[in-house]
Write a structure and sequence with these properties.
About 25% of the residues lie in helices and about 30% in strands. It has about 675 residues and is of the alpha+beta class. A hairpin with a 4-residue loop joins strand 14 (about 390-400) and strand 15. Keywords: Endoplasmic reticulum, Lipid transport, Lipid-binding, Membrane, Phosphoprotein, Transmembrane, Transmembrane helix, Transport. This is Oxysterol-binding protein. InterPro entries: OSBP_sf, Oxysterol-bd, Oxysterol-bd_CS, PH-like_dom_sf, PH_domain. One of its GO terms (cellular component) is cortical endoplasmic reticulum.
Length: about 675
C-alpha cells in the first residue's frame, strides 16, 4: 500500500524545519529543486510560491510511533513520528489516491529527537515539515486501511507506556529499540497546560465577520456546505496548506451581568413619573380601542434595554431539563419534564413594566449555554425575518443531548383603553431526536393594565398547550389574570392538567414565578417546579459573543447606542438613536421596493407554511461519528470523524493489541511511502 506525505518549508527553507534530516539535506534538496525546475519547467508550484515533488520512503507502524526509512532495510532510518503527540484527520484531494494528515494540535514538532536504536542523525532525504505530514495512499481502500491502523496506534500510545512496564517482566521486548521508543513516548505527551492552550486556541480569533449577512451566507453555501457540513481539510489543489486543523468556531464569553427581579406582583408594577405621563397621554391620543400597536412608535422609558430576539432566549437557562427529558425512559416522565422546563422560563423578568426592542428586519441574535454535566452545549439562533408583520424565527439545538427546538413568533399588540395586550402568535416545535417525538408548544400573552387610571401592572394570561402526537400526551396550562378583588395570592396564578387522550393523569396548580405543584390522579403530590435560590444558582451560564466580534446586524451591536442612553437615563438621546435605526430601516424598505426580503438563516417551508432553520440537522447524535457541535456565522455544525470502515479492528482490542506487540527489529514490517516535499523557488 502506497502512502504519500506533503510538506512545505518557510523562511527560504533554511530555518524552521526541525525534522532529523533537515540540516544534512539542505544541499541535496536544493540540487533536487534545480533538477526539477529544469526538467518540469513552469508548473503549479510556481504559482503557489513553491515546487512540489514526490519522493518514496518506507514506513513501519508500531504502537505510538511511525518509523520512516529510506529503503526497505531498517539501517536507513529517516525519522520517527511520535503518534501520542499527533491528531489524525482526513484530507480530501482532487489528485489520484487518498490523503490524510497527521499534525500536532499546538503546531509543535511531531518528530522524535532520536531513532529507534538511539540514532542521532537520520539518512539524508528531502526536508520534511516539523509539525505535520500529509499522507497519500494509492487508493481509497488502502488509505482507509492506513487510517484504521493509525487510529488504533494513536489509541495505543498511552497503553503502550503502561504495558511497557510489565514488559520488563517478559510481556514486551526489552530490546534497545523498544527502550528508546518508550523513552520518547514518555517524554512527549501533551501536558494539561498544553491541552488547555489547545482548547483556548481553537476558539480564538473567530469573531463574527464584518461582511454583510448575505455575504456570510454565500461564503457558507460555497464552502463548508459542499461537504454536507462535514469538517475536513480542503483539497490541496484549491486551498493553501497552512489551513488550521482546529475548529473555526465562534468565540463565546460568559455573560457579565443579568437582570432578574423578585417573584410576586411588586416587580411587575411601574410607577410613571409626571413627565412620562405626558408622553403616555400624547401617545394615547393617537390610539383607539382595538387598534394594532405594531406600527406605533413607543416612548423609550418603557423599553427594556435588549432586543425581543434576546428576550426569547430566557427559556433556556434550564435547558438541562430538556437533556434529562431526552434521557427519560417513560413517555409520561418525558411530558412532565418538558412541562417543568417550560415553567422554568418565566421567573426571569425585568423590574417594572418593560418592553424589549422591536427587532430590525434582518437582525440576528445568538448565544449558548454550556452543560457541565453532559459536556455539551445548547445553541440559540434567532433572526427577525419580517417587519410588517413582525415575525421572529428561532432555533435551539443541543444535538449531543438529543433535542432541538424550532419556531417562529408573530408579535401582535392590541389596545383596549385602560389596558393593552402583547400576543405571541406562533408555535415552537421541540424534537427529542433519539425518540423521534415532537412536542408542539404555544405561548401565553402579556397583559398590561392601569394605563389611564390605577397602577400600571404587567401580567401573563391565556391558555397554552404542550402536545405530543406520537405518545398522545397533552399538557394544558392556563395563566390567570388577577381578578379585580383578588389579593396577593391570586397574582401570577397558573393551573392545568396532563392527560393522555381522554384520560386525566395529573393536575397542575401554583404560581408561574414561584412554586408549582403536580398532583397525580392517585392523590400523590410533588413539586413540579420551584425557582428557589438553590435552583437559581444552578442556572446554566449563558455565553455571548463579544461586542467587537459581532456583525453589524447582531442585536447587541445594532442597539448599543440606544441601550447606552437608556442605562444612562438619557431618554432624549435614546429616542434619537432609536429614530436613526428605524429611519434606516424605512429607507432600506424603500430601496427594496417590491422585492421581497430574503432571510439569511431561515426559510419558509412551502408545505407546512412555517419558518425553519436553513441548516437544521435532524440526525441523532452518534458518539462513534460525532465529535463536537459548534457554531460559526449563525450556522450550527457538527464536527465529525472521518467516515472510515474499521475492517474488524475494534477499539476494545487496543489494550490487548498493545500488550501483545513485540517491538523488535525482527518483527518490523515496512511499506513504501511517497512523500510530497515543497521547496522555495
Amino acid at each position: 500500500s502506497l502512502l504519500q506525505s506533503e510538506s512545505r518549508m518557510f523562511n527560504n527553507g533554511l530555518e524552521d524545519c526541525s525534522s532529523p534530516t533537515e540540516k544534512l539535506a539542505r544541499k541535496e534538496s536544493l540540487k533536487v529543486t534545480h533538477h526539477s525546475l529544469a526538467g518540469k519547467g513552469s508548473q503549479r508550484g510556481d504559482i503557489r510560491g513553491s515546487l512540489k515533488s514526490w519522493t518514496k520512503l518506507w514506513c513501519a507502524l508500531k504502537p505510538g510511533v511511525l518509523l520512516i526509512y529510506k529503503t526497505p532495510k531498517s539501517d536507513h532510518w529517516v525519522g520517527t513520528l511520535l503518534l501520542n503527540a499527533c491528531k489524525l484527520i482526513e484530507r480530501p484531494s482532487k489528485k489520484d489516491g487518498f490523503c490524510f494528515k497527521l499534525y500536532h494540535p499546538l503546531d509543535k514538532s511531531i518528530w522524535a529527537v532520536k531513532g529507534p536504536k538511539g540514532e542521532n542523525v537520520g539518512s539524508i532525504t528531502q526536508p520534511l515539515p516539523s509539525n505535520y505530514l500529509i499522507f497519500r495512499a494509492a487508493s481509497e481502500s488502502d488509505g482507509r486501511c492506513w487510517m484504521d491502523a493509525l487510529e488504533l496506534a494513536l489509541s495505543c500510545s498511552s497503553l503502550y507506556k503502561l504495558t511497557a512496564k510489565a514488559g520488563r517482566d517478559g510481556d514486551l521486548s526489552t530490546s534497545s529499540e523498544s527502550s528508546h521508543i518508550l523513552q520518547l513516548l514518555q517524554s512527549t505527551a501533551l501536558t494539561d497546560a498544553e491541552l488547555l492552550q489547545l482548547a483556548n486556541q481553537q476558539m480564538e480569533n473567530d469573531g463574527y465577520s464584518e461582511k454583510s449577512e448575505h455575504d456570510a451566507q454565500e461564503d457558507w453555501d460555497n464552502g463548508a456546505n459542499e461537504n454536507g457540513g462535514r469538517l475536513t481539510e480542503e483539497s490541496d489543489m484549491d486551498q493553501s496548506d497552512e489551513l488550521s486543523p482546529g475548529l473555526q468556531a465562534t468565540s463565546y464569553v460568559e455573560q457579565s451581568q443579568e437582570e432578574m427581579a423578585e417573584a410576586g406582583e411588586a416587580s411587575q408594577v411601574e410607577t410613571v413619573s409626571e413627565e412620562n405621563k405626558g408622553l403616555i397621554w400624547t401617545l394615547l391620543k393617537q390610539l383607539r380601542p382595538g387598534m394594532d400597536l405594531s406600527k406605533v412608535v413607543l416612548p423609550t422609558f418603557i423599553l427594556e434595554p435588549r432586543s425581543f430576539l434576546d428576550k426569547l432566549s430566557d427559556y433556556y437557562y434550564h435547558a438541562n431539563l430538556l437533556s434529562e427529558a431526552a434521557r427519560e425512559e417513560s413517555p409520561y416522565g418525558r411530558i412532565k419534564q418538558v412541562v417543568r422546563w417550560y415553567l422554568s422560563g418565566f421567573y426571569k423578568k425585568p423590574k417594572g413594566l418593560k418592553k424589549p426592542y422591536n427587532p430590525i428586519l434582518g437582525e440576528t441574535f445568538r448565544c449558548c449555554w454550556l452543560h457541565p454535566q453532559t459536556d455539551s452545549c445548547t445553541f440559540y439562533i434567532a433572526e427577525q425575518i419580517s417587519h410588517h408583520p413582525p415575525i421572529s424565527a428561532f432555533y435551539v439545538c443541543n444535538k449531543k443531548d438529543g433535542f432541538y427546538i424550532s419556531g417562529s413568533i408573530l408579535a401582535k399588540s392590541k389596545f383596549y383603553g385602560n389596558s393593552l395586550s402583547a400576543i405571541l402568535d406562533g408555535r415552537a416545535r421541540l424534537m427529542l431526536l433519539g425518540r423521534d417525538e415532537e412536542y408542539v408548544i404555544t405561548m401565553p400573552y402579556a397583559h398590561c393594565k392601569g394605563i389611564l387610571y390605577g397602577t400600571m401592572t404587567l401580567e401573563l394570561g391565556g391558555k397554552i398547550t404542550i402536545e405530543c402526537e406520537k405518545t398522545k400526551y397533552v399538557a394544558e396550562l392556563e395563566f390567570k389574570l388577577k381578578p379585580f378583588l383578588g389579593g396577593s395570592s391570586s397574582v401570577n396564578v397558573i393551573s392545568g392538567k396532563i392527560q393522555q387522550g381522554d384520560e386525566l393523569l395529573a393536575t397542575v396548580d401554583g404560581h408561574w414565578d414561584g412554586e408549582v405543584f403536580l398532583q397525580e390522579k392517585s392523590g400523590q403530590q410533588e413539586h413540579l417546579w420551584n425557582p428557589t435560590p438553590e435552583v437559581r444558582s444552578t442556572r446554566l451560564k449563558r455565553q455571548v459573543v463579544q461586542l467587537d466580534q459581532q456583525g453589524q446586524f447582531e442585536s447587541e451591536r445594532l442597539w448599543q447606542h440606544v441601550t447606552s442612553a437608556i442605562v444612562d437615563r438619557d431618554q432624549n438621546q435614546a429616542t434619537q438613536e432609536k429614530f436613526v435605526l428605524e429611519e434606516a430601516q424605512r429607507n432600506q424598505a424603500k430601496d427594496r421596493g417590491d422585492q421581497p426580503w430574503r432571510p439569511r438563516l431561515f426559510n419558509l417551508d412551502s408545505v407546512t407554511n412555517e419558518w425553519t432553520y436553513t441548516h437544521i440537522d435532524t440526525r441523532p447524535w452518534d458518539p462513534e461519528r460525532c465529535l463536537v457541535q459548534f457554531e460559526k456565522h449563525g450556522v450550527i455544525q457538527t464536527k465529525e470523524k472521518s467516515q472510515r470502515r474499521h475492517k474488524g479492528l475494534a477499539y476494545s482490542r487496543a489494550s490487548a493489541w498493545a500488550s501483545q506487540q513485540k517491538v523488535s527489529e525482527r518483527d518490523t514490517q515496512m511499506f513504501p511511502l511517497s512523500i510530497l516535499v515543497s521547496l522555495p523557488n
